[in-house]
Amino acid sequence: MKQQKSTLVLAALSGVPFIMVLGNSMIIPVLPAIKEALHLTQFKVSLLITLFSVPAGIIIPLAGFLSDRFGRKKVIVPALILYGLGGILAGLAAIFLKSMVYQAILAGRILQGMGAAGTAPIAMALTGDLYTGKQRATALGIIEAANGLGKVVSPVLGALLGLITWYATFLFFPLVIIPVVLGVYFLVSEPEQNRQAQSVREYLKSIARVFEKKSAMLLTSFLGGAVALLTLFGVLFFLSEHLETVFRLNGVRKGMALAVPVLFMSSTSYLTGRLIKKRLALMKWLVVTGLALISGALTLMGFYRTTYLFFIAISLAGIGTGLALPCLNTIITSSTAAQRRGLVTSLYGGVRFLGVALGPPLFGLLMNYGLPLMFWSTATLAGVAALLAVFLIRVRDMKEPAAEEKSGPVPYKLQPVPGMAARKPWKYPEKQE
């Protein structure tokens, strides 16, 4: 692609994860206001995050299958529209309903989650289709940085919208989705991938072959991505309440404090994407280092006694997340053939969403048993993920798929014919008298 066109295409694709991440991160600063307005418990208010992420995690594999079968754009554009409609439903329910408001908002959040299933993971697969080699690593680093930038901007944006009213955040979604939909539809030209009308059974068999050969690496990468986002959103959920009760921060000041770990994550994601290029061994050790940093930061947070130490620890956790996620994205997209990349990256995206979904309720539950236990137990989880990455992410599994993994029939001349091993395969045996 020409440089100017490539920049516009990447900007349009980066808008997809940027919009998607607003779905949770922009809501976090106003959770205490929603809790007070609707008289909710801490667990019920956490469901506003969980019931967005769980439907997304469940439906993402279907979205990936459809994108492999029919094309990426045919999934991304309708998904973004559905995402906006869910925000409209939640916002209008808060304005016009006198009863069952909470249930209607949850319905809107579920609809948003279903739309989110066809956004960022499919955009990641499309980026893998459009770019190769060093450009792919850089482009995926930018995609992850856009995801992180959304996490940086959204707490401040959510806090600002919360100054108007707590439900203004829901009505903001359709406004920002319109330009992204137009950008993806008009600017992105999807490459031909020779999509085949395989049956679902044949398609699943081809996916199973990928996991047979690279199961250890893929499953470890999935776990690493889920743990990184579980801890990130768990910490953000904890901070949303903690900053008000302990540090007396409200409004924009609170939003800016929430943005600290994700600002470090976003900056690190961008730099990591520029650094890794095609250095496969480096990717592995950056994943290990990132998960180890998260584990160490959470351990430190269990001991914190001062404000400065606390914010140093959450910044280190953000850096660790920024080191791990771009490398995991590149490892997964580069190790799978284009015909199956949509489903594999969608499975990864689904696991990431489930990590986001589990983070807030898990931290909310563990908060009842004391902060040290909350931080140390999740630090152990991140440490286990780092150790698994040391032993199970192997450089040879990161390389492009081998010929037998790619679709298409094996040529007849490569197939051995019984009883003819001693003869040249392109000649018929002489007729015997």
UniProtKB/TrEMBL annotation:
InterPro entries per record: MFS (IPR011701), MFS_dom (IPR020846), MFS_Efflux_Transporters (IPR050189), MFS_trans_sf (IPR036259), Sugar_transporter_CS (IPR005829), Tet-R_TetA/multi-R_MdtG-like (IPR001958)
Domain Major facilitator superfamily (MFS) profile: 9-397
Domain of life the protein comes from: Bacteria
Cell compartments where the protein resides: Cell membrane
PROSITE patterns: MFS (PS50850), SUGAR_TRANSPORT_1 (PS00216)
Membrane topology: Multi-pass membrane protein
Keyword tRNA processing: no
Keywords: Cell membrane, Membrane, Transmembrane, Transmembrane helix, Transport
Gene Ontology MF terms in the entry: transmembrane transporter activity
CC terms in the record's Gene Ontology section: plasma membrane
UniProt keyword Lyase, yes or no: no
Pfam families: MFS_1
Record-annotated membrane-spanning stretches: 7-31, 43-63, 75-97, 164-188, 216-239, 255-273, 285-304, 310-331, 343-367, 373-393
Similarity field: Belongs to the major facilitator superfamily. TCR/Tet family.
Protein name: MFS transporter, ACDE family, multidrug resistance protein
Species: Desulfofundulus australicus DSM 11792
Lineage: Bacteria, Bacillati, Bacillota, Clostridia, Eubacteriales
